[in-house]
Amino acid sequence: xxxxxxxxxxxxxxxxxxxxxxxxxxxxxxxxxxxxxxxxxxxxxxxxxxxxxxxxxxxxxxxxxxxxxxxxxxxxxxxxxxxxxxxxxxxxxxxxxxxxxxxxxxxxxxxxxxxxxxxxxxxxxxxxxxxxxxxxxxxxxxxxxxxxxxxxxxxxxxxxxxxxxxxxxxxxxxxxxxxxxxxxxxxxxxxxxxxxxxxxxxxxxxxxxxxxxxxxxxxxxxxxxxxxxxxxxxxxxxxxxxxxxxxxxxxxxxxxxxxxxxxxxxxxxxxxxxxxxxxxxxxxxxxxxxxxxxxxxxxxxxxxxxxxxxxxxxxxxxxxxxxxxxxxxxxxxxxxxxxxxxxxxxxxxxxxxxxxxxxxxxxxxxxxxxxxxxxxxxxxxxxxxxxxxxxxxxxxxxxxxxxxxxxxxxxxxxxxxxxxxxxxxxxxxxxxxxxxxxxxxxxxxxxxxxxxxxxxxxxxxxxxxxxxxxxxxxxxxxxxxxxxxxxxxxxxxxxxxxxxxxxxxxxxxxxxxxxxxxxxxxxxxxxxxxxxxxxxxxxxxxxxxxxxxxxxxxxxxxxxxxxxxxxx
Amino acid sequence: xxxxxxxxxxxxxxxxxxxxxxxxxxxxxxxxxxxxxxxxxxxxxxxxxxxxxxxxxxxxxxxxxxxxxxxxxxxxxxxxxxxxxxxxxxxxxxxxxxxxxxxxxxxxxxxxxxxxxxxxxxxxxxxxxxxxxxxxxxxxxxxxxxxxxxxxxxxxxxxxxxxxxxxxxxxxxxxx
Lengths: 568, 176
What we know:
By secondary structure, chain A is an alpha/beta fold.
């Protein structure tokens, strides 16, 4: 029996195991939504309030669950609204498939109503994209889209669906196997390279592992932890790598880079061997590239060859899946002569420990006002006391994000969800909604700033509609804190357009949406507010009125060497 | 250093813009670009000339390989290959210069493909040096218009046996 393009789409989604769609309807996707209503038993649709929210929610769903996130939006403005979400997912290698409506094929290029060349617009921010020209190609393209999104270095794939194509009919058969002659990711690292790396690690006096988001994407946390522990190698992670290595381990040095710990930045500068795993030597990590880890031999494990020797030249490149490569390393280590690794590296480990003591993460408080770091420490304490490991933290972008990275201890992968590469304000709240959809039983908290939260605040309606008990902790400093901090340090305290003269009353606003609003203005109110929020089975917005002058420290000014840290 | 890179791609709409977008988006420069179908009509060959230090060329090759529509990338520079470019040159020709133009054409084994009372249009094929030499000689006479194809290149066959010479295929590290 022949099926319409819309039916083919639904059947294909079912076969890909998709049970949740995030989207927003419109003229060009009318038929798809009409068909979707007949599939409501099998495919749940979450109606967001802005297309950017749909993509971020699908992204949060994907990062928390490891599955492919799927969205459906209409043509023109629907598609362009999705672009920020797509670019966010692209920078952080998140597997998404985004379906956009398009005007009928005969109108394409005619400046039709709600037409945008979304394939052209998203070409540089998708892993790949497709314009489906004929219904007969639809099933294969969907198959390829999911394959591309989830394999190799994951990423978003966009499929543009002209209205006449989804209305046309064709026989439906979904390809079971797929082979693309021009796409063959390398999963196994080169054995010789891995052996060379192992020999170097075994010999190194002062080794350091620098782990990134690739460890989490590749589900390589267990192997990474085993390698580090067995051979007494300290570990620092990027923002994206937090949770990929237990934050409670004595070998963990915290995050490195611009707002990294003193310990991590000193270790990376002084190590004699640096092994990067699933990280890409981002400028926020390296600081001044010429002075980044100047004395080390560098090993780089990454599934994407373009990441290797892009910013920093490495000595031993290993292209492959992080989990496979680390497994192979553990195996080849068996062939090395046994040693007391802890003893071999005792001097280095002591040195690293001394750095931690010299300048631990810290903030000053006289108890007169709420310090944002204190709020995060309290959330950490109370959330873990209540649910153990069953939580997911998302963040917005800016100071709230950096303080979360510093003061919340992550011990498991996929417990921190944050926009690292693109740094998208407004990401955290819809991402929290997506994570809560994926894990209805988990405690999901968005640690937010007053600036970022307002960028997708309309999604409160989504959270209320679907009874998603997401908690938002607004660290309300009445300003765009991170930019204000830069202006304080680098622009002679000229606070150009960073102080909010008008802010909504977040408590009343939450209530207006049908959520719960709570406020703390004094340090002693912080704990009761968090306790009440955690006990509430509805969406809650906590408005913490915090010190507006607080800065994130340590800080390496952009373009400086990692050792040039401004400390508290 | 200048590199001649040969790229096999899916013969599909939009592929050229993916390639050119890659170059413009990352600040790489394309000096010339040539695209045509291969014997397999589903595959096109692009020959592009670009410039950069080793690190940039390495990135270009890796980034090209990363594109889903790219099947194979060959950096011909440093290997044994033949390159050709064609130029069509319209030269102003008056009674005193006509003979000189024809002599130059003959020396460079070019051809006259169009003629009018005031001009000759010449076809010249060769490597870059030869094209440049022709242009240098014709310039004083008066070039009115010039159209160049950009380079096409192919690896040389082995002289002692069969099969193409080994081009420097940066394959090992560049496949995804």
